[in-house]
Specification:
The complex is a heterodimer of chains A (465) and B (480).
Chain A (H helix, E strand, L loop, with lengths): L5 H16 L2 H17 L6 H20 L3 H38 L17 H17 L8 H9 L12 H9 L6 H34 L6 H32 L17 H7 L2 H12 L9 H19 L3 H23 L12 H16 L3 H13 L11 H17 L4 H5 L4 H18 L13
Chain B lengths: L1 H36 L1 H7 L1 H4 L3 E5 L16 H7 L6 E5 L5 H10 L8 E6 L6 H4 L3 H12 L4 H9 L8 H14 L9 H8 L1 H10 L9 H16 L2 E6 L4 H8 L2 H19 L3 E4 L21 H15 L20 E4 L13 E2 L9 E4 L9 E4 L9 E9 L8 E7 L6 E6 H4 L7 E8 L9 E7 L6 E10 L1
Parallel strand pairs in B: 1-2, 1-3, 3-4, 4-5
Antiparallel strand pairs in B: 6-15, 7-8, 8-15, 9-14, 10-13, 10-15, 11-12, 11-14
Helix pairs in contact in B: 1-2, 1-8, 2-5, 4-15, 5-12, 7-8, 10-11, 11-13
Classes of the chains: A mainly alpha (465), B alpha/beta (480).
Chain lengths: 465, 480
C-alpha cells in the first residue's frame, strides 16, 4: 500500500483507532494483521518471503542465545546471515550476477547457456533483511535478548510504517517499544499528523513534480540546453531527497501517532560541509547499520591508513550494491567512498583531527553529491554519457527546463524550511507554537498538497531497493 | 460547557477551513485543472456547447485522419450541414464511452437551449476487451474531475490516483477471468479458444465483439440507461447512434457466427432503448469493408464516404425532431475559397487538432501548442483541385508566442501526395520575429507556381521538434 493513496487514507485511521481501542495485550496482533494487509496490498505472495526471513532469524537468535560455545554461536550466526542474505541474493542480485557472468564471458569470447532470471523484486526486501540481520547480530553480541514471542518479533520486522522503505530499525529501539503500553496522547497524535502532512507535501508536491521534469531531461538530454540539464541534475537531488525524506517522515508520523518513536533518517543532508557529514545526515539508519555491522568489525578507523582506506571503500561499495543491482550503483558507492577517503586522508597522514569545515563548503559538497546522484538516476552508463555530452555541447541552444511557477515557489518554501529546521524536526518545532499557528501551517500544507500534487504516478524511489 | 467549547471550536474552525479551501480552489485553480486534466469537461463548459441546440457526443469514429478524403470534417459537422439554422456542437474524445458522456451531459446547465442529444453507441465498448485495457485509464482519470463531488475532494482523489489504473498485466488477467466466467452460447463457448483457432485480425474481431450482452449486469448499458433517464428529465430528444461494424471483413475472417452474436446484442439494446422512447439509429451493417479505414484491427473509423453515409442516417433520424430545419444533401453549397482562418478553437477543416491547448491563447480560450511532444501544429490541408485556378502565392499570418528562441520552429508549406517531386519549404520562426515572452504577429508569403496543381494536396502548418513549447493562434491564410 502506498502512503499517498486513497487506500492508505482509509487504512490509517482504521488501524490507529483500532490500535487504541483494543487492549494492550492484543495490540501486537492488531498491528501485525494491519502490517500484513499493508504489505500484501502490493504482491500478496511475497509475504511468504518475509515469513521465511522472520522464521530463520527468530529461530537462529533463540539458538544463539541458548548456546554457550562461542564457535557454535558464530556458526549459527553465519547460518542465519547466510540464509537471510541468500533470499536477498536470489530476489535482488541473481539477475545482475548472471548478466555480469554473461557479459564477462562475452568479453572473453566465450559462449554461455546462462539465462538472466526475470524475478520481480519484493518491495522493501533490502530494508527488512537488514532490520532482521541487525537483530540476530545484536543477539549474538549479547546486547539484545532473543525475543521469544514470535508475534512481537514478526511485528518488529513487519511494523507497517517502516516496513517497505525504512528507517532500518534496531531491536533495542523498536522491539522494546513494541512491548510498552502506549496511551493516547494529544501531543503524540498532533506531532504524528504534522509529520505525515509534511511528508505527504514533500512527496506528492515536490518529489513527484520534479520527477516529471527530471524524467523529461534524462529521456532526451540532447534536446535541452546545458543550463537546463544542470537544472535537471539538481532537480533530481531535490526529487530523491523529497521522495525519501517524504516517505520516511510519513513513516515517522504514522508511528508517532501510536506513540512509537522510530529513528530519524534525515537531518538536512544538503547542508553538509563534507561527504562524510553528508552520510551522517542522509539515510542515517543505513549509514549507522553499515558503521556498526561492517565498518567497525573490519577495524573501523583505528587502523593503518591503508586499512582504513580499504574499510571505507568496502563499506561504500557494499552500500552502492545495497541500493541496486547495477554497476552504476556500485560506481556511485565507490565514488562516495573515494570522496570520503580524499577528505580524510590529509588529516590522517598528518595524524591530526580533521579541522572544522567552513560554511562555504556546503556548496561544493552539494554539487559533488548532485553529480554523483546522476549515476544513481541514470538507467545505464550510456544514458549518463548522453546527459553529460549534452550538458557540455548545448551551451546556448536547446530547450529550457519545463518547470512551473507554483513548483518553484513550493521548492523555495521547502528549501527555506529545511535550512530553518537544520538539526531539528518539523513537528518538534511546530508543537511549541500556539494551536492557531499549528492549524494554520497544517491547513496551508494540506491545501498545497491537494492543489499542487502531481497527477502522474511516481512510486517511491527507494521501493526498488 | 468547557467540554462542548473544546469540541465545538475546533469543529467550527475545521468547517471554515474546508469551506474556505473549497472556495479558493474552485475560484482560482479548478478551471485550470479542468483544462489540463479533463479537457472534455472544459469543452462542455464552453459557450459554444452550452448554446447549442443539437449536441453530438462521439469518439474517434467522429473524425478522420486520411489524406485522401476530400472533406475531412467530422461526422458531427456533416450532420450539421443538414440543419443550417440549428446551432450544432460536438464533444469528441478518443475512446470515450457512455460513462464519460453521462458525466458530460450532467454538466450542461438546466437553462441551456439543448433540444437534441446524439450519443454514439459503440457495441465494442460494451464488451470486456474495452474496459480491461489501458485505454480506460486515461478516461477514468478525466472522470475523477467530472464527477458530482466537491472540487477540492476531486483534486485530492486525482492526486491520490484514486481511479481505476490497472497495469496491462492486471487488465489481461481480468480479461481472461471474464472470458472464463462468461462462456458463449453455441459452438464457441470458449472465446479465447475460438480466437486462437482463427488467429490474426479475425482473432481480434472475436475478442472485441464475441460476448453476450446482459442488460442487467453491463456497466455501459446502465450508463446509457442513466443518459436516457437524464434526457427524459431534461426534456431532450435523445438519439443513440449504433456505430457501423466491418461485418464484411469479419465474415471473411471469422465466418458469419460472429455476425449473429453482434446482431443479437444490437437487437437487445435497440429493443431496450426504443421501449424507453429513445430514437435508435442502427448503422451496424450500413457500411461495406471498402469504407472502413483500418484493415488490420477492428475499429469504427470510416473514410469520407462512410462518414457521409453515417451522417445522413443520423440527420434523417434527427429531422423529425426538428420539423422544417432539414435540407437534403444536394442543396448543401460547395464553392472554392481564397480565404481561410483558424482561431484554434474548434473549427474545421484543419488538421493538428490534438495540438490545441488551453495553456495559452491570443484570443478565445485556446491556441495550438507545438513541441517535440506534438511537433505539428494546427494544419490547413486541402486538395489543390479545390483551390481557385491561377494561384501564384499564399500569404500566411498568425500570432506567435515563444518563451525563448531555443527551438527549431518553422512555418511550413508542403505540396505532396503524388508521384511528382512535391515541395517542402520551411521558414524559421526566429527570422520572422525574435520577440519572446509575449504574443507577436508574424506573416510570410510563399510563392507558388503551376506545379501547385500537379500535387494533389497542400498543407500549411507550424512545426517544431524541440521540447520548447511554442504557441500559435489566429492563423489567417490567403491564396492570391
Amino acid at each position: 500500500m502506498l502512503f499517498n493513496s486513497l487506500a492508505f487514507l482509509i487504512f490509517f485511521p482504521i488501524v490507529t483507532i483500532g490500535f487504541y481501542a483494543v487492549a494492550h495485550r492484543f495490540r501486537w496482533l492488531w498491528l501485525l494483521a494491519a502490517s500484513c494487509v499493508f504489505y500484501m496490498w502490493f504482491v500478496p505472495r511475497y509475504i511468504l518471503i518475509l515469513l521465511a526471513t522472520i522464521l530463520i532469524d527468530y529461530s537462529a537468535a533463540i539458538i544463539i542465545e541458548r548456546t554457550d560455545v562461542r564457535k557454535q554461536r558464530l556458526a549459527w550466526l553465519w547460518v542465519s546471515v547466510s540464509a537471510t542474505c541468500l533470499i536477498l541474493f536470489v530476489f535482488k542480485y541473481l539477475g545482475f550476477f548472471e548478466q555480469t557472468v554473461i557479459d564477462i564471458a562475452g568479453m572473453l569470447g566465450m559462449s554461455t547457456n546462462l539465462k538472466v532470471a526475470q524475478i520481480v523484486l519484493p518491495i522493501g526486501l533490502s530494508f527488512h533483511t537488514f532490520q532482521s540481520l541487525s537483530y540476530v547480530i545484536e543477539v549474538y553480541r549479547g546486547t539484545q535478548k532473543a525475543e521469544r514471542h514470535l508475534g512481537i518479533y514478526s511485528l518488529y520486522v513487519m511494523f507497517y510504517p517502516q516496513l517497505v522503505t525504512g528507517p532500518i530499525e534496531r531491536p533495542h529501539n523498536l522491539l522494546r517499544q513494541l512491548r510498552e503500553e502506549k496511551r493516547l496522547n494529544r501531543d503524540n497524535v498532533a506531532q504524528g499528523l504534522m509529520l505525515m502532512v509534511f511528508g505527504l507535501f514533500a512527496k506528492m508536491v515536490l518529489a513527484d513534480n520534479w520527477g516529471a521534469i527530471v524524467d523529461a531531461v534524462y529521456a532526451h538530454p540532447e534536446q535541452y540546453s546545458s543550463l537546463s540539464i544542470v537544472g535537471g541534475l539538481f532537480g533530481y537531488s531535490l526529487q530523491i531527497y523529497c521522495d525519501f525524506f517524504g516517505y520516511s517522515t510519513i513513516a515517522l508520523g504514522c508511528a508517532k501517532v501510536m506513540g512509537y518513536d522510530i529513528t530519524d533518517n534525515f537531518r538536512a543532508p544538503y547542508l553538509s560541509r563534507s561527504i562524510g557529514e553528508f552520510w551522517h545526515r542522509w539515510h542515517i539508519s543505513l549509514s549507522t547499520w553499515f558503521r556498526d555491522y561492517v565498518y567497525i568489525p573490519l577495524g573501523g578507523s583505528r587502523v593503518r591508513v591503508s586499512r582504513w582506506v580499504l574499510n571505507t571503500m568496502v563499506v561504500f561499495l557494499l552500500s552502492g550494491l545495497w541500493h541496486g543491482a547495477a554497476w552504476t550503483f556500485v560506481l556511485w558507492g565507490g565514488l562516495h567512498g573515494l570522496c570520503l577517503v580524499a577528505e580524510g586522508l590529509p588529516s590522517r597522514l598528518r595524524r591530526q583531527k580533521p579541522a572544522q569545515r567552513a560554511a562555504w563548503r556546503i556548496v561544493p559538497t552539494f554539487v559533488a553529491v548532485t553529480l554523483l546522484w546522476s549515476l544513481f538516476r541514470a538507467q545505464d552508463i550510456g544514458q549518463l554519457q548522453a546527459v553529460y555530452a549534452a550538458m557540455l555541447h548545448n551551451a546556448g541552444v536547446g530547450a529550457l527546463l519545463p518547470v512551473k511557477g507554483p513548483v518553484m515557489l513550493m521548492t523555495l518554501v521547502f528549501v527555506m524550511m529545511d535550512i530553518g529546521l537544520r538539526d531539528s524536526r518539523f513537528d518538534k518545532v511546530l508543537i511549541r507554537r500556539s494551536r492557531v499557528v499549528q492549524w494554520a501551517v497544517c491547513a496551508i500544507l494540506i491545501f498545497c498538497t491537494i492543489v499542487f500534487s502531481s497527477v502522474e504516478e511516481y512510486p517511491f524511489i527507494y521501493f526498488q531497493f | 460547557m468547557a467540554m462542548i467549547r473544546k469540541i465545538l471550536i475546533p469543529l467550527i474552525a475545521l468547517m471554515l477551513i474546508l469551506v474556505g479551501s473549497e472556495l479558493l480552489y474552485t475560484q482560482i485553480f479548478y478551471p485550470n485543472d479542468l483544462r489540463q486534466y479533463a479537457p472534455m469537461g472544459f469543452f462542455s463548459d464552453k459557450p459554444l456547447l452550452q448554446q447549442a441546440q443539437v449536441v453530438y457526443l462521439g469518439e474517434s469514429s467522429n473524425h478522420t485522419f486520411v489524406v485522401e478524403d476530400e472533406d475531412r470534417r467530422k461526422v458531427s459537422d456533416m450532420v450539421a450541414d443538414y440543419f443550417p439554422a440549428l446551432r450544432c456542437a460536438d464533444i469528441t474524445q478518443d475512446a470515450a464511452h457512455a460513462e464519460v458522456y453521462y458525466h458530460l451531459l450532467r454538466r450542461i446547465p438546466e437553462e441551456a437551449p439543448v433540444q437534441t442529444v446524439v450519443v454514439t453507441m459503440n457495441l465494442r465498448s460494451m464488451g470486456p476487451s474495452w474496459f480491461d485495457t489501458g485505454l480506460e485509464t486515461a478516461l477514468q482519470k478525466q472522470l475523477v474531475l467530472l464527477k458530482d463531488q466537491p472540487n477540492l475532494l476531486k483534486r485530492l482523489l486525482l492526486g491520490l490516483k484514486a481511479y481505476d489504473h490497472r497495469t496491462t498485466e492486471e487488465c489481461q488477467k481480468d480479461l481472461k477471468e471474464y472470458w472464463r466466467q462468461h462462456p458463449l452460447e453455441g459452438d464457441h463457448a470458449d472465446v479465447l479458444g475460438w480466437a486462437d483457432s482463427v488467429g490474426g485480425v479475425g482473432a481480434n474481431f472475436i475478442k472485441k465483439y464475441a460476448f453476450e450482452l446482459g442488460l442487467e449486469d453491463n456497466a455501459l448499458v446502465r450508463k446509457f440507461d442513466e443518459i436516457a433517464a437524464l434526457s427524459k428529465a431534461r426534456g431532450w430528444n435523445l438519439v443513440f447512434h449504433i456505430l457501423p461494424i466491418n461485418l464484411e471483413l469479419s465474415d471473411s475472417l471469422v465466418g458469419t457466427e460472429l455476425r449473429q452474436i453482434i446482431y443479437r446484442n444490437r437487437d437487445l439494446v435497440k429493443r431496450h432503448y426504443e421501449q424507453m422512447g429513445v430514437t435508435v439509429v442502427d448503422n451496424v451493417d450500413l457500411l461495406p469493408d471498402s469504407l472502413f479505414l483500418d484493415k488490420d484491427w477492428p475499429t469504427e473509423h470510416f473514410n469520407e464516404r462512410g462518414r457521409r453515409m453515417v451522417a445522413e442516417r443520423i440527420a434523417q433520424a434527427v429531422a423529425p425532431l426538428h420539423a422544417g430545419q432539414y435540407r437534403p444533401y444536394e442543396s448543401i453549397p460547395r464553392t472554392p475559397r481564397y480565404h481561410y482562418e483558424h482561431h484554434c478553437e474548434d473549427e474545421v477543416p484543419w488538421g493538428g487538432f490534438k495540438s490545441l491547448t488551453f495553456e495559452k491563447s491570443y484570443s478565445g480560450q485556446r491556441s495550438s501548442v507545438i513541441s517535440s511532444d506534438d511537433p505539428f501544429g494546427t494544419t490547413l490541408e486541402l486538395w489543390t483541385r479545390d483551390l481557385p485556378k491561377g494561384i501564384t502565392s499564399v500569404d500566411v499570418g498568425c500570432w506567435l508566442y515563444q518563451p525563448s528562441v531555443r527551438h527549431d520552429g518553422k512555418l511550413a508549406l508542403e505540396l505532396s501526395g503524388s508521384e511528382h517531386d512535391g515541395r517542402w519549404e520551411g521558414k524559421p520562426l526566429q527570422e520572422l520575429n525574435e520577440t519572446t515572452g509575449r504574443w507577436v504577429p508574424i506573416s510570410y508569403t510563399f510563392e507558388l507556381d503551376s506545379a501547385l496543381y500537379k500535387n494533389p494536396t497542400i498543407k500549411i502548418y507550424v512545426m517544431n521538434t524541440t521540447p520548447t513549447k511554442i504557441y500559435v493562434d489566429d492563423v489567417v491564410i490567403d491564396f492570391r
